[in-house]
């Protein structure tokens, strides 16, 4: 059984997450044990990044039917999890549009699945923190204002991608 380093690297966090999700899927880890372990993992930025890369993109059904103990751990992790989920929502939304333009339906569907998972998770996290984080993202996507402009610029998102990000952010709030 793998033990979690206190500050796992991004690579270690991805490997640990993949191992734990496989055990969970095979019924070898309960929802509660998985949640406790992932709670420790997402306490660090690289740990949370590794968890989200594997859980959002992978085929494991965890993020499609989030167990309550895991939701509680992700909520407890606070602003870092909210931030990463909002960023993953923006990136997957922009990439879905990119893949659609390239007529890559398979990759487009994969990006849309990540966006859907992020949307659902954001609706379960601490509402005030989510609201504040999404307002910042919306200001950048819709009006090119605020802290997230550099994030959107760094990824080179065009006007149509930014509009799609704004629309998906607004949809999270409406849901």
How would you portray this structure in words?
This protein is mostly helical. It has helices at residues 10-25, 31-41, 45-57, 68-77, 79-101, 105-124, 127-143, 149-154, 159-174. The longest helix has 23 residues, at 79-101. The radius of gyration is 16 Å and the shape is globular. The mean pLDDT is 94.
Q: Which properties best describe this structure?
A:
single chain, 175 residues, mainly alpha, 0% strand, globular
Low-confidence stretches: none
Q: Describe the oligomeric state of these chains in a short phrase.
A: single chain
* Helix run count: 9
Overall pLDDT, averaged? 94
Distance between the termini: 39 Å
Structural class: mainly alpha
Number of E-type strands: 0
The major pleated sheet works out as:
none
Q: Could you spell the SSE succession in H and E letters?
A: HHHHHHHHH
Q: Please estimate the helix content.
A: over 70%
Strand content: under 5%
Anisotropy-based shape: globular
Radius of gyration: 16 Å
Summarize the structure in short:
By secondary structure, this protein is mainly α. The chain has helices at 10-25, 31-41, 45-57, 68-77, 79-101, 105-124, 127-143, 149-154, 159-174. Helix content is 75%, strand content 0%.
SSE layout and pairing:
Blueprint: H1 10-25, H2 31-41, H3 45-57, H4 68-77, H5 79-101, H6 105-124, H7 127-143, H8 149-154, H9 159-174
